[in-house]
Structures are given as structure tokens and as C-alpha cells.
Design goal:
This protein is an alpha/beta fold and about 220 residues long. The chain has 2 domains: about 90 residues, no CATH class; about 110 residues, Rossmann fold (3-Layer(aba) Sandwich). It is about 50% helix and about 10% strand. It has 12 helices and 6 strands. The strands form 2 sheets. A 4-stranded parallel beta sheet has the order 4-3-5-6, with helices on both faces. Helix 4 packs antiparallel against helix 5, helix 6 crosses helix 8 and helix 10 crosses helix 11. The longest helix has 16 residues.
Amino acid sequence: MVKVLEKASCDVAYNTNQTCCGQPAFNAGFVDDARDVAQKFIRDFDTVDYIVGPSASCVGFVRNYYPKLFENTTSHNPARNLGKRIYEFTEFLTDVLKIENYGAVLNAKATYHDSCAALRECKIKEGPRKLLSHVKGLELVEMADNETCCGFGGTFSVKFEPISIGMADQKIQNALATGAEYIISTDMSCLMQLDGYIKSKNYNLKTMHMADVLASGWE
């Protein structure tokens, strides 16, 4: 991700003191703990122009839930301000930098998975596809039910493992039916879920994050 951003002439800094955004704790019902982590997140990224994340789930949580976490507190305005400065990686490329072609080359056939967080939390749909359309040598084929959840859902995959596995199977079968070599997404959580299932079945399919796709084929 840094490699692609720097190619687009961005001055990229990485804060090594950063931690989680607080979403896992929040989703598990530990709101006070989530607020403590979120407070640190606000401090860690207080002075930068933009925050760019490789997972839409984190971005969507910060943007949509931080103002609610800090409602009626002195941190409410900083939380709202942060939400205006944080972007999912592909969203930043297409909506802020307004660059769609990064000179990537990937000679392969691939299908794209819309993560729930990207699609529903961040309203990201066409941007990633536009970026992929400019990748030289890449043939993008849409799978059936591409907006259906992969079954990860954080703690959902632990609490409801059989359902989660069934959803992963459905997603992978749809991907395999396209004849794709790669399944691409913007969310590391989805890719982790799908990669685990693929390896458990020894399927001839690989997962790939959008940042890796856009950084392919050039030094």
C-alpha cells in the first residue's frame, strides 16, 4: 500500500505506536474498552492530513461509530474530524488522488469480492473495479452473488462456525465457477477467511489484496 501511495507522490508516514481501532472490542460488547482504544487511535492520527487503511472494516468503524462512541464528550469533535480524514485504500486512490491507472501488470484471470464493510459501511463498489480495469494483462470476471458475505464477520466466525464455513464454501464455489486464478478484495479479514478455507480444501485458487495487485509488475 505504501509502495503504491509513494508512486502517486504521497508523503507516507507510518506510526509504529498505533494499535487497533477498537472494533473487535466494540463488536464483542466491551464498549468502554473500545472507547479507550479509540481514544488512543484519535491521538495517534491527530496531526496527519489523511489516514489510509488497507481494510474497509477498520475505516468504516472509525468513520461511522467513533462519533457515537464519543457522543456528549470532549472527544466528539476530534472523532468526527477523524472520520472525515480516514479513507479505505482504493477509495483514497479514486476519490482523493483521482488516479485510476498505477501501471500495474498482472497476467491472470481474477474475480473480485465485495466485502460487507466496503460495500455497506463505506459505500465502495465501482472504485476497485475501475482500478482493476487498468491493470495490464488482468482479466476480471464477476462471480455470482458477489455482494454476499464471505462468512467471517469477526466473532461470528467463532460463535457460528458451521454457518461461517458454509458461507465461505458458497463464496469460493462461486469464485471457482468463473475459472479465476485469484480472488481479490479490499479487506484483509475477508481474505484471511477465504484463504483459510481454500487451503483446507487444497483448491487451485489464490487470494490477493488490492494493494498487492496495484503494486504488481513494477519495481
